């Protein structure tokens, strides 16, 4: 637990929060560029779980496209930065999760932890943008307009 608190404290100093510590539930939540990230330490696994809400689950008729997108991004970690996208039904949300096992960290653990947090935030931003574009492209009005344009070009 000491190493986990030290990593969080060093990270806090780097971002200008001198007294950053894990709370009584072994977690803390920070916001970067409007993205809330929770850093949670599971002592029994000696691992940090870093997670963020990417978006709300869309309406039922749009979910198939979103699920396909999530699976495609998770395949070979194509768009997840080494983390995973999934859904949390109880919150009706799409979540991005990244793990940081402390036992596998070397002497440069603080540098790797900082880089992982940065990659996590960047990945969530990219996923939010990609999902927004996907949902806009799948809106009935957009599809109808695309069909009109394609029809007009054929005439």
Automatic annotation (TrEMBL):
<protein>
    <submittedName>
        <fullName>Tir chaperone protein (CesT) family protein</fullName>
    </submittedName>
</protein>
<dbReference type="InterPro" id="IPR044530">
    <property type="entry name" value="SicP"/>
</dbReference>
<dbReference type="InterPro" id="IPR010261">
    <property type="entry name" value="Tir_chaperone"/>
</dbReference>
<dbReference type="Pfam" id="PF05932">
    <property type="entry name" value="CesT"/>
</dbReference>
<dbReference type="GO" id="GO:0030254">
    <property type="term" value="P:protein secretion by the type III secretion system"/>
</dbReference>
């Amino acid at each position: 637990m000491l190493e986990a608190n030290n990593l969080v404290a060093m990270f806090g100093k780097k971002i200008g929060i001198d007294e950053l510590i894990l709370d009584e539930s072994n977690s803390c939540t920070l916001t970067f560029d409007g993205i809330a990230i929770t850093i949670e330490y599971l002592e029994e696994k000696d691992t940090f779980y870093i997670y963020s809400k990417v978006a709300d689950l869309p309406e039922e008729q749009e979910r198939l496209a979103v699920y396909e997108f999530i699976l495609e991004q998770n395949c070979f970690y194509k768009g997840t930065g080494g983390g995973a996208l999934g859904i949390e039904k109880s919150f009706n949300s799409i979540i991005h999760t990244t793990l940081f096992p402390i036992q596998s960290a070397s002497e440069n653990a603080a540098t790797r932890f900082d880089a992982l947090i940065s990659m996590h935030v960047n990945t969530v931003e990219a996923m939010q943008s990609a999902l927004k574009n996907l949902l806009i492209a799948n809106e009935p009005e957009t599809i109808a307009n695309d069909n009109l344009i394609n029809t007009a070009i054929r005439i």
